Amino acid sequence: MKRFRLPLAAAALAIALHGAAASGTNLYIRVNQVGYRPGDTKIAMAFSTSPIGSAFAIYPAGQAASEAKAAYEGKVTVIEGVTWGKWTQHAELDFSKFKTQGRYMLRVGEASSPAFAIDDKVYEPLPDQLLEFMREQQCGYNPWLGKPCHTNDARTAYGPLPFGTELDCTGGWHDAADLLKYLITSANATAQLLLTSEIEKVSADRRAQGRKGVAHTNMFKDIVNARGDAGSNGIPDVLDEGRWGLEWMLKLHPTPDALYHQVADDRDHCGPRMPYAEIADYGWGCGSNRVVYCADGKPQGLGKYKSTATGVANLAGRYAAAMALGQIAFKKLDPAFAQRCQKAGIEVYALGQAKEGAQQGNSYKEPYRYEETTWADDMEWGAAALYRVTGDKHYLEDAKRYAKLAASESWMGQEQTKHYQYYPFMNTGHFMLYDLADRETQQLLAQYYRDGIDRCVRMGKKNPYRAGVPFIWCSNNLIVALVTQCLLYERMTGDMQYHAFMVRQRDWLLGRNPWGTSMFTDIPAGGVYPHQPHLTTTWLTHRTVRGGLVDGPIYERIFKTQLGVKIQQPDPFADFQSELAVYHDDHGDYVSNEPTMDGTASAILMWALSN
Ligand SMILES: [Ca+2]
Ligand SMILES: [Ca+2]
Predict the structure, then answer these.
(1) Which residues of the chain have pLDDT under 70?
(2) How far, in Å, from the CA of 429 to the mean position of ligand 2?
(3) Secondary structure of residue 445 in the 3-state scheme
(4) DSSP letters along 352-405, please?
(5) How far is the CA of 399 from the centre of ligand 2 (A)?
(6) Is 0.90 topped by the overall pTM?
C-alpha cells in the first residue's frame, strides 16, 4: 500500500533482463533457471505468435551455436487448445532423458533459453538461501539491520486484561512489507520450519544408510547464532529460526487460559520507515506501544471493520502442532525448553477444543484481512503432533476425527476464495497423522490428498503451463502448497502418478512461466528474479535480500480493482501479461510482488522435500 517512484534506470535494467528472444524472432523459451536434478522430469516451454519448429537442442552454456555440438536433440510437443495473452502457440520441450550433469542452454531455431544446471545437488542451497529472508523479517531484534525494533510491543485489546495492559510480545516476524505480526501466519511458518528440520533428519539418516561408515551431514548450514547474527552456535540455522518463532509464540500464551494472536493492525500502513524508527500510532502515541489482540473466538475490530470469527481452534491447533514439533526438535538440545513447548502445546490445544471455529486476522481502516474459516485441519495437525510427543491415545482419536472433518476441504479446484480462507494452504495434518494411523485411515488420508491434487490437475488444463492454481492473491503460496502436497503424498504412498505435474508447478516458481522470472528475490544469482519487490526495508536501504517468495501472478481483474495498487514504471513484462494473470516486477505492485514471510517459510519445507 506504500507508493514510491522508481528511478528509470531500474526499469531499463528490468527490461534488459526479461529475456530472451533472439532478434528478429518472437519465440521465447522458459526454463527452471536454477535447474534440474538428473533423474527429474525436465520440460521447458517455448511460445510464439507463429508456429514453433519441430526440433530443439541442448548445448553447453556459454558456447555459440556455430561452435558447439549439440549435447542432446529432441522433438517439440505442441500444446493445442490453450493460449496465453497474445501468445497463440505453445510447445513443451521434454529433455527428461538427458541426464548428464553440467550447465546448458536450450535452443529452438534462433531462440535460446537462459542457462540452467543439471546437477544432483541443484536444490540443496535453496532452504538456507530462503532463511536469509526470514531473518530479514525478524522483529524485536533484526539481524539484517543489526538493530532492535519494536521493543515496546504491546498493549492488550479484548481478553481478560483491562484494555491497554502492557504485555511483552516482542520478537516474531514482520508479516510481509508491513510490520504487523500475526499468529495466524507465524504458527504455520514456525511449524513448517520445524517440520523441515525433522524431515531433513529422516532424509539424512536415509542417505547415511546408503553410504556405510559415512557420518550423515545436515543439509542445513550453521552460519548464524540464535538471534540470526553471523557465527555458528552448533545448531542448524533452520532450527534457530524455528525457535525464534517458538519463543514469540510462548509469549502470546502468558497464562494457561490465554492466547494472543495479532500485534498491530493496518494503522501500520502510514508511510515508509525503517522497523526501528516506528511512527505508527495505536492510541498510545506516535511510535509507542502497538496493540496486541487476544483470541476470544469472537468478531474483532477496533475501527471501521470487524472480522467474522467463530472460535479459536485454527490458531490453537497450529500452535499445538508447532509446540509439539518444538518439543521433538529441542528435547536433546534443550530439555527444559522442550518441556515448556510441550506444556504450552497441550494447554493451547485444550483452548481450541473449548472454542471450535476460526479466529481471523483483524483490520482497522481497510477491508483487507486474513479471513480463515477452516479449523479442523489445524486441530488434526495439533492432535497428531501431540500424540507423537505424549503417546496419549486420546490425541490419536481426536486427530482421526478431525481428519474426517477436514477431509479435502481446500482452495484446490476453486476459482476464487476469500483471502487466506483455506489456510494453511495445505493440510499438513494428514501427513502428520499418516504413519500413526491404521491402514483404513491411511487410505482415507491419501485419498484426501489425491482429491485436492486431482482438482488442481483439472484446473491446470486451462493454461499451457498446467499451473493448477487460481490466480488469487498469493498464488505462489498456493503453488508451493500444491508441490508440497504432491511431495508429501509421494513420501506417504510411494505413488508417483503426480510427479510430472508437480515438477511443472515447481518449475513455474523458478522461471518456467510466461514472464520467465524466478519468484524468489535474488535467486538464482545472475538470473531473472524480482528486482523491485514491494518491500520497504530493501527499498529504503538500497540493499537486496535473498530468498523472499513474492505473492505471485494474479487475475488481471483483481489487479485492476485492488485499492491503491499502481505500477510505477514501464512494464518490462507487458508482452507477457494475460487476462488470466498478470505479474509486475514493480515496487508499486503489492498484490503480485510483495514477499511474504509465511510463503517463504513454506517454500523452505518444499525445497527440503525436493532434495
Ligand atoms: Ca546456527
Ligand atoms: Ca485452517
Answers:
(1) 1-25, 64-66, 203-218
(2) 10
(3) helix
(4) HHHT-S-PPP--SSSS--------HHHHHHHHHHHHHHH--HHHHHHHHHHHHH
(5) 14
(6) yes
The pLDDT of residue 206 is: 63
Q: Which ligand is nearest to the CA of 371?
A: 2
Strand, coil or helix: what is 516?
coil
Q: Which residues have CB under 8 Å from 562's CB, separation 6+?
A: 590, 591
**What was the pLDDT predicted at 74?**
98
* Residue at grid coordinates 546437477: 119
The answer for residues whose C-beta is within 8 angstroms of residue 350's C-beta and 6 or more apart is none
**What is the DSSP track for 110-142?**
TEEPPPEEE-TTTTTTHHHHHHHHHHHTBSEEE
The Cα–Cα gap between 503 and 30 comes to: 14
Beta bridge partners of residue 155, listed in sequence order:
166, 291
Please tell me the distance between residue 479's alpha carbon and the centre of ligand 1 in angstroms: 29
Q: Decide: 422 and 409 in contact? Cβ < 8 Å.
A: yes
Counting ligands in written order, the one closest to the CA of 410 is: 2
pLDDT score at 65: 62
Ligand with minimal distance to 358 CA: 2
Express each pLDDT in 170-182 by its tens digit: 999 999 999 999 9
Q: Which residues pair with 105 in a beta bridge?
A: 59
Instruction: Cis check for the bond before 154: say yes or no (omega within 30 of 0).
Output: yes
First to last CA, the chain: 37
Is 24 exposed, middle or buried, given 0-12, 13-18 or 19+ CB atoms closer than 10 A? Answer: exposed
Alpha-carbon span 218 to 547, nearest angstrom: 20
In the three-class reduction of DSSP (H, G, I as helix; E, B as strand; rest coil), residue 610 is classed as helix
CA of 239 to the centre of ligand 1 (A): 7
d(CA 507, CA 450): 21
Helix axes 376-390, 335-354, angle to 10 degrees: 140
Task: Identify the DSSP state of 60.
Answer: E
Closest ligand to Cα 357: 2
Cβ neighbour number for residue 578 with a 10 Å cutoff: 17
CA distances from 108 to 23, 40, 100 (A): 13, 21, 20
Determine the pLDDT at residue 209: 65
| C-alpha span between 581 and 85 (Å, rounded) | 9
Instruction: Look at residues 395, 248, 243, 219 and name the one whose alpha carbon lies nearest to residue 328.
Output: 243
| pLDDT value, residue 208 | 65
CB-based contact 272:132 (threshold 8 Å): no
Please tell me the distance between residue 40's alpha carbon and the centre of ligand 2 in angstroms: 32
CA 289 to CA 298: how far, in whole Å?
Answer: 24
Among the bound ligands, name the one nearest to the CA of residue 239: 1
Measure 365 CA to ligand 2 centroid, in angstroms. Answer: 25
Q: Which helix (H) or strand (E) holds 43?
A: strand 43-48
Q: What is the pLDDT of residue 611?
A: 86
Mark out the alpha helices in 461-526 (DSSP H runs): 475-493, 499-509
Q: pLDDT for 517-566, tens place per residue?
A: 999 999 999 999 999 999 999 999 999 999 999 999 999 999 988 777 88
Distance in Å, CA 311 to ligand 2 centroid: 12
